[in-house]
Amino acid sequence: CREKGIQGIVLVEFLITKEGNIEDVKVIKSVDPLLDQEAIRVIKLMPKRIPAENKGEKVNMIYNLPIRFKLQ
Predict the structure, then answer these.
(1) 16 exposed, middle or buried (CB, 10 Å; 0-12, 13-18, 19+)?
(2) 29 by DSSP, 3-state: which?
(3) Of 50, 41, 55, 57, nearest to 17 (Cα)?
(4) Tens of pLDDT along 32-43?
(5) Which whole-number Å values give the CA distances from 17 to 21, 36, 40, 50, 51, in the listed order?
(6) What is the pTM of this model?
(7) CB 72 within 8 A of CB 28
(8) Which of 24, 26, 33, 51 is deepest in the core (most CB within 10 A)?
(9) Spatial contact of 63 and 16, defined as CB atoms under 8 Å apart
């Protein structure tokens, strides 16, 4: 991507389960297949999260995260 000058924001959606695990990672807004793969790889490497709560009960939550790839 660096050689081709490809940069931009990849929007990734994923599920944070009741247990805090990250599942169902997918790209919502693509820039380039190589950047998409890297964004998914980075999300899957994230540690366990604190799950969302509703009325004191842990619940699954879908989360969107923009990842900016910028050449310097």
Answers:
(1) buried
(2) strand
(3) 50
(4) 999 999 999 999
(5) 5, 22, 17, 9, 6
(6) 0.85
(7) no
(8) 51
(9) yes
